[in-house]
Amino acid sequence: MGIAESVVATIITASLPLLLAALGELVAERSGVLNLGVEGMMMMGAVAAFGIAFATGNGGLGVLAAVLAGMAMALLFAGVALGLAANQVAAGLALTLLGLGLAGPIGEGWVDRPGVKLPTLDVPVLSDLPFVGPLLFSQDPLFYLAVALTAGVAWFLFRTRPGLILRSVGDNPHSAYALGLPVLRIRLAAVLFGGACAGLAGAYLALVYTPIYNETMTGGRGWIALALVVFATWLPVRLAVGALLFGAASILQLHAQALGVGVPSQLLTAMPYLVTILVLVLISRNRVLLRSHTPASLGQPFVPER
């Protein structure tokens, strides 16, 4: 693999956990629920994936454990934010603190220990194509799953009746409820999907990106995923493009450090987060773009009329 292929491959690898986590959060926010607990769900997914795969030697079971761990955390959030109609911002922040706090003692015995790495799956004939073959058709299973999820979420939201219902709940839950739609159940399903995707993102970190466990393996990616949803203005295709851009920012700063670029290493390390802030500032200036896609009831609790 040449230098260009190697750089692009590492960018794709860095982008995948962001894409997976952001896809789930996009669906949750389209239903009107703002879950700031992505970082905590990702960390619990990572520790569950690493632990189960380490104990069984089976990466597939690790992925399943990560999905279940993410959904369990999401269910806890839903119980507080939906069932008790609590403040969604506070509940999400508490979920992140809980996830990071729980992952520490659970994974204490695995710190710096090598785990199971998911194998690559080659697509016959296509994987032999020059340049694009190794990049797109000789990847791990979670790469293909991420591509399928991106296409599936875009199709679901904008080409199906259930997707239209989900978006209507996110825009006006009271009108949706008046029409007989089960608003809380729809929001619960969206939140659980978000938890499953965050768990998958954690599994990717633990089983593909860095299959050596450490307590900070999420590295703030959950917060970047949250910013990525805003960057994409709640559109799945833009989300995929944005994930690649943010992944490139994180990888290129590593290459810059390796080449000895005359810039302080602290500034280069902070580059992905500086890019995140810059992008959010630029997008916030375009109020028309934000209003056209932002779910109108985002972050607002809903209490059914009795």
H/E topology pattern: HHHHEHEHHHHHHHHH
Distance between the termini: 64 Å
The order of strands across the largest sheet is 1-2
Strand fraction = under 5%
User: Major β-sheet, in short?
Assistant: 2 strands, antiparallel
User: In total, how many domains does the architecture comprise?
Assistant: 1
Cα shape: globular
Describe the fold and architecture:
It is a single chain. This protein is an all-alpha fold. It has one domain (about 5-120, about 140-295): ABC transporter involved in vitamin B12 uptake, BtuC (Orthogonal Bundle). Helices cover about 70% and strands about 0% of the residues. It has a two-stranded antiparallel ribbon. The longest helix is centred in the N-terminal third of the chain and has 28 residues, at about 5-30.
Tell me briefly what this model is.
This protein is mainly α.
Write the layout of secondary structure elements.
Blueprint: H1 3-30, H2 38-56, H3 59-83, H4 88-106, E1 121-122, H5 132-136, E2 138-139, H6 141-159, H7 161-171, H8 173-178, H9 183-209, H10 221-231, H11 236-258, H12 265-269, H13 271-284, H14 287-293
Antiparallel strand pairs: 1-2
Keywords for this entry:
mainly alpha, ABC transporter involved in vitamin B12 uptake, BtuC, two-stranded antiparallel ribbon, globular, 2 strands, 306 residues
